[in-house]
Structures are given as C-alpha cells and as structure tokens.
Amino acid sequence: MGEENQKLKELRAKDKELEEARDAVHEELAVIVQSNKSNSDKVKLIDEEIGQLTRDIAEMEREKTVLELMAKQQDFWGALEVRMRQKIDELNAGLAGLSDEKDPKTIIEDLKSFEKRKPFSQQRIDINNAQAIYDKAIRTICELSIAGKKILPHHKEARLNVLDRFLNLDRIARYWN
User: Fold this and answer.
1) What is the spatial distance between Cα 33 and Cα 35, in angstroms, rounded to a whole number?
2) Which of 177, 159, 175 is nearest to 109 (CA)?
3) Residue 145 CB burial class (10 angstroms; 0-12, 13-18, ≥19)
4) 84-92 long-range CB contacts below 8 Å, 24 or more apart?
C-alpha cells in the first residue's frame, strides 16, 4: 500500500505538472491567437490601403492621360478666332460694300487685353466663364475618348455652342460685329 500511495503521489504530481503545462500552453495559444487576430486586422487594413492607393494611382494616370489629350486640342482663343471668322463670313455672306469688317486676330488680342486693363470688368467675367465652360466641354470629349465611349455630335457641338453664345453676348458682340 505504501508503494501505491507513492505512485499515487507521483501520478498526482505528474498530473499537476501536466495541467500546469497545459494551462501555460493555453495561455501561449491565447496570446498567439490574439497576435494573429491583430496581425490579421493589420493585414486587412494594409490590403484596404493598397486597394485605395491602387485606385488613386489609376485615377491619377487617367487624369494625366486626359490632360495630355486636352493639351493637344485647340485652346479657347484659337477656337474663338476660327469661330469668329466663320461667324463673320456667315453674317456677311451676300452682303456687298461693307467695309467695316474687323480682323478676328486683332479682336482676340483686344479681348485678351481685358485681363490686364480691366480685370474685374463684366467682359472679363464673361471671358472667364466662357473659357471655363469651353474647357469643360473639351474635357468631356477627351474623357469620353479615353474611356472608349462614343463621342456624339452634341458633345462636339457643346464647345461650338459655348463660343457662339459668348460671341453673341452684347458686351462681346460690339467688339467684333
């Protein structure tokens, strides 16, 4: 019986050691699980950041492509000069003996001078507005082209309509007509 008691004590001591070892392993496992969960959250956050950065880069590349294509287009002043020439020719068609025709190039230079001479005049405001709307129309055409979408006639006409409206403003028409 003494030997059995000794074995029982040894088994209980061994059992206690194993329980302590098991508890230590459980604690380590809990720490590892928590660490993995934390790392998993960090990985998810990093993945989201990478996704956002990838989208930002794609948007920046698209914007760069749009701006490069816009730079190839006729600017507001060049388009205005061409359109003014067309309008003058159209309005004077069939009319003879009119000698007060003005040169569009000179008129454009006069309109450009408003920026320096009269920066807060209504004409300058009209010019700024027309330029902004014209640039937006050009941008729309460029964006459609880059996206591979069809550019319809009304898209192309939008820029011409801006120029026509601008040229027909009373404050502007008196300079060229």
Assistant:
1) 5
2) 175
3) middle
4) 84/108, 84/167, 84/176, 87/164, 87/167, 87/176, 88/176, 88/177, 91/177
The Cα–Cα gap between 173 and 165 comes to 10
102-156: pLDDT as tens digits: 788 999 998 888 777 776 788 888 999 999 999 999 999 999 999 999 999 999 9
pTM tops 0.90, yes or no = no
CA distance 84 to 78: 10
One-letter identity of residue 123: Q
Q: Cα dihedral sign for 17, 18, 24, 28?
A: positive
The three state secondary structure string of 70-114 is HHCCCCHHHHHHHHHHHHHHHHHCCCCCCCCCCCHHHHHHHHHHH
- Here the tokens at position 78 are 């060049």
Q: Which amino acid is at 74?
A: Q
Output the CA–CA distances (angstroms, integers) from residue 100 to 7, 81, 97, 103, 172, in the order listed.
126, 18, 9, 10, 17
